[in-house]
Amino acid sequence: MSHKFPYRLGVLSPVPPYNFPLMIQLLGRYTHPIMEFAHANSYWRTLHHRGGLVMVRVEGEGNIHHPQLHIWVMNANTTIEPDELLAQVAHILCIDLNYSPFYEFAKSQPALWAVVEPMIGLHWLRTQTAFEALMHTIIEQQIAWVAAQKAQRWLVEWGGHFLEADGLRGYAFPTPSQIAGATVDELVPLKITFKRMNLMISIAQRITAGDLNLESILDMTAHQAYDVLVSIKGIGRWTASWTLQRTLAVHHVVGHNDVALQAAVGRYFFGIDGKVSPQATLDTFHQYGDYAALAANYTIMRWIFDKY
After folding, report:
1. Which is the most buried residue in 14, 64, 101, 243, by most CB within 10 A?
2. How far is C-alpha 21 from the chain's CA centre?
3. What pLDDT was estimated at residue 142?
4. What pLDDT shows up at residue 308?
5. Which of 231, 248, 265 delimits the end of a domain?
6. Are both 71 and 147 inside the same structural domain?
7. CB–CB of 161/55 below 8 Å?
8. Which pLDDT score, from 0 to 100, does residue 238 have?
């Protein structure tokens, strides 16, 4: 069926509390918007869909306790399967997550609550694929956040998968076959180490050759997926934990070696201008038991708001 763009695809009802306006504000903190971006109080994203691309716009309605998300298709170069596309958008926007128990717990922890209270209803976004999540995270290893955004932006532009609407251009992530066929010299503009560029290429080559089914972690438990990730040569604890958060929106490992998290802990929990040690970061969040990693995630989001 052909459509005149834009057209309304459907409505999603996230589990409350869900703070769409705050998510739009968070995206506005990104110096180099990558694939998802905010424009005119809406969320925009270009997705791979049935062998082509679809550009969507999401508008919020209601409030954090009664949220609704209206999904519009702005452009497409493929046949759209509406239910499948809605499911893709729902996955990325994490509409299924219920953080109410965490908020109730945080209220009983004064230091944590001071961090979390302004962030109620804010959800970290999922990536469309596990491959996308892992590549983004490898780029971010031991590099400043703004520099990582710039590198990620270069990579998606290099991939060349984009659509345009209303004067805006939105990119989807490069495919494994594209990165598998790249050379280190081609990826030099990423401005990351040769070791990490080679790691990205080798993982993409394993996926393309059928030796690694990375997308299978989407159907695993968090612990199973973590084991798969750390079994990949070159993937350590930090990379695996952040890949899991991006792919599944599960938080079971505190990324204690993350320098931004260490700095955030220094500010919010120790009242100092500077980072604390990895061990102090672990100790800070482990007191929150099963909520340790989620508490760390909210601390990072608060850091982004306050620093950028």
Report:
1. 243
2. 17
3. 78
4. 86
5. 248
6. no
7. no
8. 83
Distance from the Cα of residue 12 to its chain's centroid: 19
CB crowding 12-32: b at 16 or more within 10 Å, else e: bebebbbbbebbbebbeebee
Cis peptide before 6 (omega within 30 of 0): yes
Q: Do the domain assignments include residue 170? A: yes
Residues 86 and 182 in one domain: no
Side chain identity at residue 283, one-letter code: D
Q: Both 137 and 233 in a single domain? A: yes
Task: Reduce the DSSP state of residue 59 to 3 states and report it.
Answer: strand
CATH number of the domain encompassing residue 216? 1.10.340.30
- Block means of pLDDT (10 residues each) for the chain, 308 residues, are 84 98 93 88 97 98 97 97 97 96 98 98 95 96 87 97 96 98 97 97 98 96 92 92 90 82 97 96 96 94 92
Pairing between β-strand 168-171 and β-strand 162-165 as defined by DSSP bridges: antiparallel
* Residues 144 and 88 grouped into a single domain: no
What is the rounded CA–CA span in Å between residue 255 and residue 278?
A: 9
The 3-state DSSP class for residue 170 equals strand
Structural domain span for residue 49: 7-93
Q: Is residue 83 part of a domain?
A: yes
Q: Would the pTM of this model clear 0.90, i.e. be above it?
A: yes
Does any domain span residue 44? yes
For residue 104, being part of any structural domain is answered with no
Which one of 74, 93, 112 terminates a domain? Answer: 93
Please classify residue 52 by burial: count the beta carbons closer than 10 Å to its beta carbon, then call 0-12 exposed, 13-18 middle and 19+ buried: middle
Residue 185 makes CB contacts below 8 A (sequence gap 6+) with none
Residues 89 and 168 grouped into a single domain: no
Element housing 181 (H / E): none
pLDDT of residue 2: 61
CA atoms within 13 A on the CB side of 227: 5
Q: Which burial class, exposed, middle or buried, applies to 64 when counting CB atoms under 10 A from its CB (0-12, 13-18, 19+)?
A: middle
**DSSP strands (E only) in 83-196:** 162-165, 168-171
